[in-house]
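Per your request, structure below.
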């Protein structure tokens, strides 16, 4: 998972930082931009426009010395030095088969023009359906390392760091990354220090260039106190969404709304009531399971197919790890709060950290999933298919009920002439806070960029760091959010920009999911499902902030109710008193296992063998009967203990968690 981008939103730590690490970070609110406002920009029809093509001629000099002196990337000089092509490794999760492409890319050429750096499209790679440790072992055996790696949790890379495979960036960031220092200040976001030092693996040495700040509503507010978010809010279950084909839903519940009707209702009223959101009478876990069997009956009774291919209710795996099924779907139907997972959680009753996968409630849930597989509710073939096959079925509309990250690509379906759409389906039942919490804490980066010594010459390191710093700057953020002015995508009057193309406006301001306009030009938007992990076309370029940063169109347009906005606002979190933030407990260190990496050795030791853990857990879903399930579950538990899931490790996690959160434990909700 997408667990990174999301987990990227939840890893938590509070630690002070010192001036020696980043120059200029002592001013908490020191930023380069005028604070953004949701009502800061232009009207629909400006009285005068400045043609985007009429840009100031590029100046002479070093671009990296001019980033705070120009208004647009087009004004920066052409790079005349060495050209670098960097092979990138995207290390999040097990990877996927998505390779979104851009037909009229205006971003990659501008990055190359200004910095002389390009990411290798053909040579870059992700984990190829494997655990990151397995992929790392393959790269080590072949000695075929990339130039850079996008790394979420550095814990799995501890041995690689100790082996001297990547640069210590401490001095390089101080010398060559002033924009990163200003726009990702450690004094404001102390979690970044823990992330980039791998929890102080070697003191204050920094192993990654921080990027993609998470939780934009909070992080922009921290930098610009006057900021007012225009964004919808998630409910107590966070991003644990379930989707359903609206034509099938209509066959079962004629009064249920299609996505088109949801869109129209939002444009008319500008909001949704509780009755609008909970328009399908599913009020419990059991109601939802019955709903799945009812969908199966409907498919069989009507002989439903899609392009001549069989329809399925849902699936048990998407050709990746178990995150979507066992965190998102499991959490939703079992009413767990946001930001819980199948590894570790803080138990409110015992006041200790526990392994989720060792609890009776988790076993019961996975056993229920196994029954759904045996009954054909979850497609048994999904346990054997790779991610490419899964995405083909998903985007062909063959699954009636997908969930979370497996959002069908609306642009692909529209291009194929599909007359139905997928909409969110909500369970009208309270979230269980009796034993679980919804953790919330300081924000940090979604990933850091490591630079490999054997592949990037020391003389080229400043160019790589300055390239990354350009992408963190105000000018860089504007460039990949609007396109460079020279691309002619917008008109500008008195510093206020309006897109010329209404499709592009719909995509970048209102997050339209099906017109493909943002991807066409390779503009950055993680709120579109096609590019939800990294926000742009393959190979993914680094960016400043997940969602929409202070310079993004979403935060700089006079907004009107739009049908494209309905997708986000159709969430119970927008009902009074029902937001995720109101239900969350603030912590300094998260309850998730990866929050202990680097600080608690037993956490790192357990994670080294995650691949075997995941595969053995997945196998339990394929048990042919209850007896075999019990046997396979026993084997899974024994393996977990062998890999370090012991009482001693839990004690170590608990001690670290309670000590780190001593100022917060008594305030847990």
């Amino acid at each position: 998972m997408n667990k990174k981008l999301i987990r990227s939103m939840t890893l938590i730590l509070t630690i002070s930082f010192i001036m020696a690490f980043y120059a200029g970070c002592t001013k908490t609110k020191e930023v380069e931009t005028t604070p953004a406002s949701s009502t800061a920009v232009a009207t629909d029809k400006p009285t005068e426009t400045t043609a985007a093509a009429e840009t100031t001629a590029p100046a002479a000099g070093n671009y990296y010395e001019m980033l705070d002196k120009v208004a647009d990337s087009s004004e920066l000089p052409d790079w005349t030095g060495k050209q670098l092509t960097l092979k990138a490794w995207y290390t999040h999760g097990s990877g996927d088969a998505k390779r979104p492409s851009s037909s009229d890319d205006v971003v990659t050429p501008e990055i190359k023009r200004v910095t002389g750096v390009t990411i290798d499209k053909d040579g870059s790679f992700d984990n190829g359906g494997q655990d990151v440790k397995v992929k790392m072992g393959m790269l080590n055996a072949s000695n075929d390392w990339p130039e850079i790696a996008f790394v979420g949790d550095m814990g799995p890379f501890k041995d690689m760091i100790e082996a001297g495979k990547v640069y210590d960036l401490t001095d390089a960031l101080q010398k060559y990354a002033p924009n990163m220092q200003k726009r990702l200040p450690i004094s404001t976001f102390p979690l970044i220090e823990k992330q980039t030092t791998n929890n102080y693996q070697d003191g204050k040495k920094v192993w990654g260039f921080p990027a993609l700040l998470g939780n934009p509503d909070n992080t922009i507010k921290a930098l610009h106190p006057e900021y007012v978010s225009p964004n919808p809010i998630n409910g107590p279950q966070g991003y644990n969404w379930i989707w359903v084909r609206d034509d099938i839903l209509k066959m079962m519940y004629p009064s249920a709304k299609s996505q088109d009707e949801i869109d129209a209702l939002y444009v008319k009223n500008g909001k949704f009531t509780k009755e609008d959101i909970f328009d399908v009478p599913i009020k419990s876990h059991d109601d939802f399971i019955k709903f799945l069997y009812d969908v199966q009956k409907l498919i069989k009774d009507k002989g439903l197919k899609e392009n001549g291919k069989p329809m399925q209710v849902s699936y048990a795996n998407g050709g990746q790890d178990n995150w979507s099924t066992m965190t998102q779907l499991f959490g939703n139907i079992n009413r767990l709060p946001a930001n819980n997972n199948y590894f570790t959680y803080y138990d409110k009753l015992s006041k200790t950290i526990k392994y989720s996968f060792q609890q009776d409630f988790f076993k019961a849930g996975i056993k229920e999933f196994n029954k759904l597989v045996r009954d054909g509710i979850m497609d048994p073939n999904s346990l054997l298919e790779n991610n490419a096959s899964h995405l083909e079925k998903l985007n062909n509309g063959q699954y009636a009920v997908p969930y979370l990250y497996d959002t069908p690509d609306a642009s692909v379906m529209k291009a194929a002439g599909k007359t139905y759409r997928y909409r969110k389906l909500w369970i009208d039942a309270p979230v269980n806070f009796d034993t679980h919490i919804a953790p919330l804490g300081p924000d940090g980066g979604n990933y850091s960029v490591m630079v490999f010594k054997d592949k990037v010459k020391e003389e080229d390191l400043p160019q790589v760091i300055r390239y990354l710093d350009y992408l963190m700057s105000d000018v860089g953020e504007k460039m990949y959010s609007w396109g460079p002015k020279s691309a002619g995508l917008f008109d500008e009057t008195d510093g206020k920009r309006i897109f010329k193309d209404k499709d592009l406006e719909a995509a970048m301001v209102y997050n339209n999911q099906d017109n493909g306009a943002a991807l066409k030009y390779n503009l950055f938007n993680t709120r579109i499902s096609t590019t939800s992990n990294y926000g742009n076309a393959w190979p993914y370029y680094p960016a400043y902030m997940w969602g929409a940063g202070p310079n993004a169109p979403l935060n700089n347009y006079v907004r009107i109710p739009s049908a494209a906005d309905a997708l986000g606002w159709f969430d119970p979190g927008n009902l009074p008193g029902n937001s995720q933030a109101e239900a969350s407990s603030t912590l300094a260190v998260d309850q998730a296992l990866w929050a202990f990496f680097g600080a608690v050795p037993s956490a790192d030791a357990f994670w080294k063998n995650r691949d075997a853990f995941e595969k053995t857990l997945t196998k339990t879903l394929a048990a042919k009967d209850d007896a075999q399930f019990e046997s396979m579950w026993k084997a899974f538990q024994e393996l977990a203990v062998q890999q370090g899931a012991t009482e001693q490790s839990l004690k170590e996690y608990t001690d670290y968690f309670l000590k780190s959160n001593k100022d917060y434990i008594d305030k847990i909700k």
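The first strand starts at residue 84 and ends at 86.

Regards,
D.
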